[in-house]
Write a structure and sequence with these properties.
- A hairpin with a 2-residue loop joins strand 4 and strand 5.
- It is built from ten helices and ten strands.
- By secondary structure, it is an alpha/beta fold.
- The relative contact order is 0.19.
Length: about 250
């Protein structure tokens, strides 16, 4: 990641014919989609559909067998190009360090890389915590927070680098509906305030339909459809409809 600036400008993201196999099993089978600058784009699908593997490619933990990933038209498979753009990941678990305070967690990147003096780091931390509705929590420890608050701290930590692209990995997992709704509102507010491009990987149907500009539905390593929430709801595919309407009712014998 490069130095932190105040330049808030969402980037475009394009994934083209992405393919990946493990032990001769094709997990990603020609994934294609494009995210516009400042858009909230949700990749939704059931467990085992390829969402996690796709996300690992986007953050550079996996290399595709075929295909490419472009930011603003440039391949991020080149380290020099990847370093030009500020990307942040909000982990599914939050990934806070329990031995550090909330403020120390949020400011860790700035502190570790000595990018700002301590008083300036404290100001940035307070600003980002207030941005996610957690004013005056800097001195708390992670174990004093609820699950939803920990997720918001993780978002505040991502904001410290002034990201152009934020990737969210199952941001509402293990949260109750009220806390999940708070996280959804925070994602939307960030789009409105700083125009960051947001890519959300989730199986949470309520979240997807509540916040997305567009949704890509992935199943068995392929994109079934891409469209607005209303377009996706109307897409007539048996696998998609089964996923969208799954509930706890027992099937008739």
């Amino acid at each position: 990641m490069n130095d932190v600036t105040n330049n808030h400008s969402g980037v475009s993201l394009r994934v083209s014919d992405l393919r990946k196999s493990f032990n001769d099993e094709e997990v990603l089978r020609g994934i294609d989609f494009e995210v516009q600058p400042g858009e909230i784009f949700v990749i939704m699908g059931p467990s085992g559909s390829g969402k996690s593997v796709l996300l690992k490619h986007l953050i550079g933990l996996e290399t595709p067998d075929e295909g490419e990933i472009l930011i603003n038209g440039e391949s991020i498979q080149s380290p020099e190009i990847a370093a030009k753009y500020r990307m942040a990941l909000v982990f599914q678990s939050g990934a806070l360090l329990n031995s550090l305070t909330v403020g120390e967690n949020v400011g860790l990147y700035l502190t570790e890389h000595r990018l700002k003096p301590p008083e300036e780091i404290a100001r940035v931390v307070a600003e980002k915590l207030e941005a996610v509705g957690l004013k005056d929590t800097s001195d708390k420890m992670p174990n004093e927070l609820s699950g939803g608050m920990k997720k918001r701290v993780a978002i505040a930590r991502a904001l410290v680098i002034e990201p152009q692209l934020i990737l969210y990995d199952e941001p509402t997992s293990e949260l109750d509906p009220l806390s999940a709704a708070v996280i959804g509102r925070e994602i939307v507010k960030l789009k409105q305030r700083i125009h960051v491009t947001s890519l959300v990987v989730s199986h949470d149907r309520d979240l997807a339909f509540g916040i997305a500009d567009r949704i890509a539905v992935i199943n068995e390593g392929r994109i079934l459809t891409i469209g607005t929430p209303e377009e996706v709801k109307q897409f007539n595919d048996p696998a998609l409809q089964k996923f969208l309407h799954a509930d706890f009712q027992h099937e008739s014998p």
